[in-house]
Every structure is written in C-alpha cells, then in structure tokens.
Amino acid sequence: MPKKTKKEMVRTPKGMHDVLHGDLRYVEKIMEKAQSIAEFYGFLPIQTPHLEFADLFLRPLGETSEVVEKQMYTFRTKGGDLFALRPEGTAPIMRAYQENGMSSWPHPVKLYYGGSFFRHENPQKGRYREFRQFGLEALGDSDAIIDAIVIKVLYLTLKEIGFENAIIHINSLGDKECRPAYKKELAGYYKKKFNYLCKDCKRRLKENPLRLLDCKEEGCAELRPQAPKMIDHLCEQCKNHFKSVLEFLDEGQIPYFLNHYLARGFEYYGRTVFEIFLETNDNEKIVDKKKSGEDASANNAVEKPSTAIALGGGGRYDELMAILGGKGLPAVGGALGLERVVNEMKRLNLPPQKTIQPKVFLIQIGPAAKKRSFRLMEELRAAGIPVGESLTRDNLKTQLNIAAKIGAKIVLIIGQKEAMEGSFIMRNMYESTQEIVMQNKLLEKIKSELKK
Length: 452
Ligand code: AMP
What we know:
This protein is an alpha+beta fold. It is built from 18 helices and 16 strands.
C-alpha cells in the first residue's frame, strides 16, 4: 500500500466526516425527540458493537443485496476472523436478543438505538460511507399494531421536529408462503424483457427478482410500472395483516402512499416494508393517501421520483431469526437516517433550539482573582446560574468586549482588591450601573438582577 502523504494523513476518509457542534445540535435534537417518543411507546435503549462477525450480515441481508455485494467494510483479523463494520442495525439486534436471553423478557421486546453505520457507497449528498441512524426494533410479535407503532414513532419524530409533509411509502412483500409465486411471476415478466435489463439486473434476475424493482438504471426503471404487483399475490393472512397496518395508519392520521414496487434491499424483509419521504409539490404526485386494503390495490402507484431520497425506512422481518439459525421470531423495525434529516432541517429552515447564551459573565484581573474565579465558577454552576468566562485572558477590555458580544446582562468583575476582600463589582451592562456586592449576597443578588 502506498504511504499517505502528510496532507492525506490529516483528511477524513472519503464519505466520512467530523460532525462539529453546529450539526451535532441538529443530531441531538432529532435524537432527543425520537428517544422521548420511543420511550413513551415502551422502547428501551440498546447499544451494540460497531464490529460484528461478517457472517451476521452475509446471509440475512442476502448475498445479492447491494450492501453485501458492494458496500460492506470487512477485514480479517490476525487470528483469522472475518469482521464487518456494521452496515445496518437489525441483524445485530437479533444477535443481541439471542445472546442476552431476551426470549425470557416480556414480548414484544422493544428496543431503540442510535449510532454510526458504514457502507462503501459512492458519496454524494445524502449518501455517506459513515452515516448515523436512529432505529427501532420490536421483536416477538406479529400483530399489525406494532408495525404501525414503529412507523408512528419515526413519523412523529419528523413531525414534531417540524416536517409537515412526511409521507410513508408502504408495501407488503407477503410471507414465505405467498412470496415465491410472486417472485416467479416477476422473474417471468423480466425474462421477457431480458435484453432491456442492465448488466447487474441480468444477473440478479436469477438470484432475486425483487432486487430488479429497486434498480435505478433508466432502462430497468422504465419497466417497473408494468411489472406484476405483490398485492395481487398476497395470501389471505398477509392481505389481512397489510390491511390492518393501513387501518392503524389511518387511525393515527399518518399519511401513506401505496408503493406497489417498494421492495427494499435486504433479503430478510417480509410483509410490511416502508420508506419515509417528504412529499414535494413539484415532481411527486401522490395518487391517494387514504385508501387502504383491497381498495388500494386498484390504486395506481406512481413512481417515487428518482431524485427523492428516503429519510428513513424499515419493515417486518419475521424470517430473519430463522436465517440466523434460531427459532422463528416475528419482528419489525425501522430507522431514520440522521444526516438526511439534518440536511432537510437546514433546507427547510428548521433549526434546533439555539444555545442560550449565559446572561452572566465573569471577569478576572490578576492571579489572585483568577484563582478565586476557578472556585466561583463551580459555585455558580451548583446554583444553576449559567455563566460565561474567558479565564485564560487577563485584560479587562478584552473580557468586557466578549461579555458585550454575547449579550451578557451582568458582568462580575474580580480584581486584586475584590479577591482579598471577598467582594465583586457587579455591573449591569444593560443599565450601565455598577455596585459592590459581598460574597455572601452574591447568588441572591444575581438572581434578583436577572429577574428584573
Ligand atoms: P436502510 O438501512 O438502508 O433501510 O436505511 C435506512 C435509512 O438510513 C435510509 O432511509 C437513509 O435515511 C439512511 N441511509 C442509508 N444509507 C445511507 C447512506 N449511505 N448515507 C446516509 N444515509 C443513509
């Protein structure tokens, strides 16, 4: 491997970024909102490692999935183990369920997480190699209400951040009873169009025809609107399940759009699959948000615009545990992509709460005053009074300028004399008045001055 030049050494790897305080405030706001809604609905926090055995992802995601085919960061350790930087959160949660004996917990086991995921994608806006997700998983129940709850938590998170136009694209992929017949018909349809398919899809056709529905290549995308729909092949149970999910969404006034060709990339999905978009007025036409069940099958799905990127997605994965070698366990989950939500918050001018600048500023002049300030800062913190400072500076004017810049109302000045006496000069910057205050009266005085 060629050695990195000094310039290259001080750059983040392609598609990965430092997240500075400006953006972190957005991330924090999303996480706080999502967490509080998730906790209300009984989800508990969990953290899993960033590294897992690569096998945990290979079969569950599917050897033919984009992530496994092209995007997983894997490496072999000196001991010979093949590890992967986690590309997604669901398979690790399933592993954690087994490893931590969660089968003995009350079901469904409802968990949420936040953190980084890694995919070797071509970086572009909204697509990074390290990205962050807030995710939810509910394990051990097949009731449609839990699908709707997962969707609701993600939807409400966006809504309460200020997105008025989030919409759920939803479909059912059926189960292992009814999906094979659909896949066969889909394969039959695409076989007839074989010459129009892209190179990857020609290969995927044999391995997993559902993947063709996802293909972004123009030629393949053009074939999609005439392709057979899963909804016409759902067995009675899957149809009822889907209908029920949609009825819960209606009940919760969660707008959705039946996207008959939504398949999502991973092998483990079955029944409900969904993605969350922001409805745009220009190029996205939503045919009917409110139709559900069989009515909806008559509803002509419009293609989601190729330019739109999903803010989140998820679905039911009742077959995943069996793929991992465990006993069958119905489960459903979903995640929001935090970078994408942040980008949209900025675009739509939905800033996180501004950090409130402290209204008190501490100025010290001379070594004794600096020592006293060191202790005083802690007394003010304990009293719940936010205070600004510039303790490394010694010049009065410089410190006064900073105080003025942040808009401090009260400035506390300690010089050599005050440090000896245990007093402060308290200056009200708004009224340009000042007085001497003794230590034992300080907190009380600050509070009353701030209230004015
Ligand atoms: P997925 O795990 O593929 O179902 O993705 C769930 C959500 O994570 C997507 O809807 C995106 O918002 C986000 N996401 C997935 N991949 C990326 C990526 N490479 N960069 C940024 N966000 C991503």
